[in-house]
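Consider the following assembly input.
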Amino acid sequence: MSVFNAILKSTKACLVTIIVYFSVFVLFGNISARATATTKDTMFEDSIVKVAITDNDNSALSRGLIEYLNETEDVVDPQTTSIKEMNDNVRFLIYDYALIIPDDFSERVKNGETEDLLEFVAPGATAPQYLLTEKINTYMKDVMVYLNSGYSEDESIALTKENMIKLSDTKASIMDNADENHRSFYTGMFTFNGYTLMMILCISISSVLSFTKDVDVKNRISVSGMHFKTRNFAIIAAVFCIGIVITVAVTIFVGLMGLSDTNGKFIFYCIDVIALMLVGLGMAYMISAITTNENIINMVTNMFVLSMSFFCGVFIDVQFLSPAIVKFAHFLPLYWYTAAIRLINDTPVDKILGKTFYEYLLIEILFAGIFFAAGLIISKKKEQYAV
Amino acid sequence: MFLRIFVYKIKELSRKYWLVGWNFVFPLVLATAFFLGFGNLIKEDPDTLQTIDVGYVNQLDKSAGFEQVLKELSKENDEGTTLLNLHTYSSKDEAVEDMNSDIIFGFYLESHDGIETVVRSNSYVSTIMNEIVREYNNYTDVINDIAKKHPEKVPAAMDAISSNNSFISEHSFGQNTSQYLQYFYALLAMTSLFSSWISTSMLEGMCANMSECGKRVECSPASKFLSIAAGILAGTLLQIVSNIIVVIYIQYILGINLGVPMGTMIILCSIGSGLGISAGILMGSMIRNERLLVTVPLFFTMICSFFSGLMWGQIKQLLQYNCPIINKINPAALLTDAMYIRSTYGPTDEFYQDTFIMCLMIVGCLIISTLFLRRRKYVSL
Amino acid sequence: MSQPVVSIDNLVKRYGENVAVDHFSLKIEEGEILGLLGPNGSGKTTTINCLLSLLTYDKGDIKIWGKEMNPSAYDIKSQIGVVMQNVAVIDTLNVYENVDFFCGLYINDKKLRKQYVEEALEFTGLTDYKKQKPKKLSGGLLRRLNIACGIAHKPKLIIFDEPTVAVDPQSRNAILEGIKKMNKAGATIIYTSHYMEEVEELCSRVVIMDHGKNIANGTSNELKSSLISREKIRIGLPNKSPEILAGLKEINHVYKVKEDADDVIIKCDGGEHNLVHVLSYLTDNNIPFGHVTTELPTLNDVFLEITGKELRD
């Protein structure tokens, strides 16, 4: 019991690490999960573009255009008059589109000019950019056609607006039968958890285990008369205990955060997280066999877990990764964890429990075993060669 | 004396495995991870509008004008891109089946009731699909309006409507730097700031209040400032080498064009290294606790890197409007900003302003550190 | 009279309320090995740090070779060698590089430095280990490296701050022999310790510190001769009747007779052949006795008599 207690007590030394990564999980996990969570659409809705407008003309025509955009899009303050800064803002997604109405806009329209009357800044040829450019072009074309056909400025603006409103009634519908288009809050949170839980487990458990690997401590325990089985059982039990406490804390937190989006799939995410916990414990054991230096534990864990998170769909969705990377990711345990999460997300709740799900879990457990075996071999070799 | 201390400091620091690991290996691993993660996105921005696979079901007895419009949009435009890839179906069921199999994004159903857009979910692409229908309907409405009041203008109006006018044009900034490069700039900034560890580690061996070796150095006739200056130079050189390795690795091995000329990049990396080293000297001159000497530089680096956009690219721009001073005092933000500006807009005033502030920070940190370190006799050891 | 190498006058160093060094004065002449004795926390290391100008002090004057010691007194510093209480070496440099680095802080001439480094390694018996990293050295070898780093530049004044703490007897003897050799070569030495045997063996003069004060100063013999108790005889005595004890006390020069378990301790305040007199009394009176030992006073006795506590307390 004393070995068990000592290991549990020495976890206190890693409390700061646990708190830091848990905070990262709470903050960024939530942000990314909320940002990427989507729900099943039941009716067609236009996607709205966040557009910042700078009106240097302030004419009836420019105001008409702004009014139209105000009704159909999300018009925001450009926050600057510098075109470069607007470019920075669209690049860093403060808004999607910056529209600049030059001071000679109205005059040029009245002169019948049709080219480059307005200017925009957008982050490349994106869908919002295409959409809004098309809308503005259509609006301008209508106004110009009305003006050139003998309508007054006010009439042209009014008729164009009327047309645009009438067009909102265009028939459009949603026909959605599958889950896979939608990412639940839980999927977002548990995906991010792949990074933070692995970091917490690897750093804290490796650090805790490193004290039992210290030659003097190890010798002292060995000569204490405590049976080999008893002390190793105590170490394993303590490590599992820490792992389970951390995992349960994380899972409860996710459960509470997503109460509003709760569904029957939560239990399956939990099963996947437990499998990941085993991987984390195995990896921690392996790292502690490689080194007992806290600095190196930190570094090795960061390098390994961070890289895995990039390759395995934690930070970047696998659909954006090249096929070669995805193929390579198959050899990493985190890939199977995220694959199981995707499976849970995309499959109706009554069909999750099946061969594929079990396969994914089994692969994760196999990885945990491989890491543990590797740790054992490294420890043994180190002892053999007195490294 | 200076040269000897310099050489020994290089030897001493470069043999610290954890330091080499964090300052040389970690950035390379992270750069590789970024490359594997963002490499695809840099080469091909996922936000770029791709050709949309759309279906068309004609339930009318005759061929319709709208189908012609879709066919027109399925042709390559002046910019060499194609908006639509049209699939025609004889029945709605066929179209639905293909839509559910991800062969098409959505489809148009034209019947006597009009044109209906059917999609699986709401998105910009579904809005674009619907917009095509609206534009088509819009032309009809406009011509009808004109025909009512000014029938003589209808031919001209039809010409105007079918013309390919571009009322709006994009402002060009020359080089179109990918927004994902931001992560690599932030990575370089983080690498630079990691050098604050080099400084604290170097100072530890030089100040009597930090280590036994420091006592020995301070008991010797070697000038403390000369010794520290040699250490600073050694640390900066190591960090510059580390940064250049990372830049070369990203640019030439990973093949990601950082968009900044190599010479400028080396200067910026050197300034970044100087920033990290001088910040570390400042921390080392103020902190005595051995644990804090490791954790403070780590937290400093990670917090600065976070606010420069290492983990969330948007943050720097959000701060620009909510608390711009943070971007001006955050060394990592200044460095990423300088790289971003240089690659996107060239050597503008803002670029020089960022560079100047960074140089000023280096000088400021060193002056304040000198004031702290001047107290050569300690009240307690 | 020649100028003292070190002159500390009325030194006071406070840490808040706590007075670490309390009006401490000391003079060290050239060629001396001065032992600075005192229990842990008596102010030895603080005095050394003040002497080296590493610490500020509240009051007093410190002069070395007649010049005021301050952080910028580089000419003085260049003649001083310090062997710290804790090992002060750079882990990432090997033995040779460590000695060369620290020697290089004093000696600029490359050729001379090389010679000095080789000599220091030879002197400390580290020549065979010069490519080894400090972490690979045993405790004793590490202490020797610590010494080599402090003395390689052949200083005229060497300060050893408890250099033999946690050192095996073999290495300890080697260190003490080395210090004697350095002293013979002309170096003045300050040696702080709380091992009185070492100080007695090594030092030509001893200063005892307690609570930051200089409580005794003189050669080992001078200090011991200042004691009342000059000889201590311990006898295993089964019969400790008051008559026998009173009889023992009657012997010339015996001033105290004390029971200590099965033994009796007899303290004498001088005289010669005290043991003969005691044994004669016992045999003459047919008093049976067991083992007999006699002890001359040690510095610990000096300390005990002055402060009422043991040096290692």
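Chain C has eleven helices and 14 strands. Ask yourself how this observation constrains the way the partners meet.
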